[in-house]
Amino acid sequence: MGVDVVTTETIDRPRDVVASYAADPGNAPEWYVNIKEVRWRTDPPVRAGSKIDFVARFLGRTLEYTYEIVELVQGARMVMQTAQGPFPMQTIYEWRDGDGRSTVMTLRNRGEPAGFSKLLAPLMVPAMRAANRKDLARLKAILEARPR
Could you tell me if 68 and 46 are in contact, meaning their C-beta atoms sit under 8 angstroms apart? Predict the structure, then answer.
């Protein structure tokens, strides 16, 4: 069973503001509920080919993984993926203009668990969906609280 979780949120800020904040891995611990630490393997700023280590807590476990940015279209789309470990994952951010000066952000996580993780996939999907909703709600709250 593959995992494919898509979550969307409308944020009342211009697309360039939302995209530049969300695409900066250094900001991830502020708005991702489960990410506790980020370490750059390559020098910032983020670009195609950048590699970043993430430390997260998910389903009661500490996970460490390295994402590589495989696609970056400023202000429109960022794709990062990891191939190591029992759960190769791809995370996709997409931003498009909403009504007025708002931004519609889509967060998509997809992967193909293997080994023991394959048995946990049915539990992971609802947990990932809930975490993604919280993450985007937190991102929205952070950005909308900033002065215009």
Answer: no
Cα–Cα distances (Å) from 128 to 75, 111, 134, in that order, read 25, 12, 10
| Residues contacting residue 25 through CB under 8 Å, at least 6 positions apart | 38, 40, 46, 50, 52, 54, 67
Per-residue pLDDT tens digits of the chain, which is 148 residues long: 578 999 999 999 999 999 999 999 999 999 999 999 999 999 999 999 999 999 988 778 888 889 999 999 999 999 999 967 657 889 999 999 999 899 999 999 998 776 655 666 667 788 889 999 999 999 999 999 998 7
Comparing CA positions, the residue from 132, 147, 144, 108 lying closest to residue 18 is: 144
How much is the pTM?
Answer: 0.91
| Separation in Å, CA 147 to CA 13, 44, 65, 115, 143 | 10, 26, 34, 47, 9
Structure token pair of residue 145:
């609280």
Cβ–Cβ under 8 Å, residues 66 and 42: no
* CA–CA distance, 55 with 81 (Å, rounded to integer): 15
